[in-house]
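Q: How would the structure tokens look for this protein?
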Amino acid sequence: MESSGARRGSRARPCGRRPLLRRALVSVAVLGAAAAGTGCVKARAHSAPGAVSSASAPASASASGEASVEEAAVSVVDRDALLARAMTSVTVPDTARVSVAVLDVDSGSSAVLGADAFDTASIVKVDILAALLLRAQDAGRNLTAREKAYATAMIENSDNASATALWNAIGGAAGLDAANERFGLTGTEGGDGGLWGLTRTTAADQLTLLRQVFGADPALSEASRTYLQGLMGRIAADQRWGVSAVADGSAWALKNGWLPRTATGLWDVNSIGRVTCGGHDYLVAVLSDGNATRARGIALVEAAAKAAVSAFTAG
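A: Here is the predicted structure in token form.
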């Protein structure tokens, strides 16, 4: 939702190396202390019940009843704790909140900081197109020329009128919610009426959506995923910010959203996508609200994205 990409909702109501080396002598107590900050960051970290744990499964016992040192080393890698610790480097203004989720595609390890829901603004346009593609698959058809024109404008240029047309094509909030149930999203609810930009979501759900777009075994077909990925890799030049700040050069595919809330004058600023850093692919979702300006929101989102990926690349 933004001046060029989601004004409709605004008017209505408004690099690293291999993943962190597993070390046998890492202290569980230290990581546990860091985990105490795994909440939605607001000036400082707070607890967030329900955050997805990325800790490895407990080490299995050997025949003698003793776990090996190697197995014990695996068990103490708590990605949520590492993410929380990395995010302490990010300064969050008193009025703002930020939540982040990241997946290391190579290892399958993921981490989430914060369980609160946020307005999607224009990142919902990825969800709208995914829902449209799923409906087309069910009907055994390709997108029409008009649908493709709307999709291109909606994703690459964040065009609002195109988003509204496709929102209506999928059946509005009911259609989005039905698709999201199949995609595995559990904390996302479509906006009322035509207010698609006021859809509510969580960082964990946006990571689940990114898995649908970039994953190996999603509900979307390979052709649908390739199509959506291509659009996200051709975002207009003035919108190439957010999670792309982490990427090596142009090795990214993303969608951003920004929405000034008329009630408060504060900004929702969000960014989701895939980035390649140091030869490794990461899926990253950063949600924020309460930003004094759009520019400050962008700076917060980019700092959070960098910190999130550093939790996987730091050695």
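The chain has a mean pLDDT of 82.

Residues 294-313 form the longest helix (20 residues).

Upvote if useful.
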